[in-house]
Design goal:
Blueprint (H helix, E strand, L loop, with lengths): L2 H13 L1 H14 L5 H36 L5 H27 L1
Helix pairs in contact: 1-3, 2-3
């Protein structure tokens, strides 16, 4: 689970949006102000909007983190992986050179 997903879930749980929306819509259905199908549709629409908002928040947080890491000149996971690949390649070449020198 990424940090964005954790933050998104924490925000949604912290403010209780999905539960409150469902609760309010259930009350409207019980009072007869909405049919069950209208209630289900409304719950789905609200859930989709909440999810999109959460995704937007996660995206914003990710962008902020990326910019912060860039400003701090901290290498990303991708940067470290590239360096590891280069190091592995160079180590293999050095070993090959060492092996060819010891045979001579």
């Amino acid at each position: 689970m990424s940090i964005n997903e954790i933050v998104h879930k924490a925000l949604m749980a912290g403010i209780g949006i999905p539960e409150k929306v469902t609760e309010i819509i259930d009350d409207l259905v019980k009072k007869g102000e909405l049919s069950e199908s209208q209630g289900a549709t409304l719950v789905k629409e609200c859930s989709d909007k909440v999810e999109k908002s959460g995704d937007d928040i996660s995206k914003s947080i990710s962008e902020i983190l990326d910019k912060t890491l860039d400003k701090m000149n901290i290498p990303t996971r991708s940067d470290v992986e590239k360096l590891n690949k280069k190091l592995t390649t160079l180590s293999a070449r050095v070993k090959k050179l060492e092996d060819s020198q010891t045979k001579t």
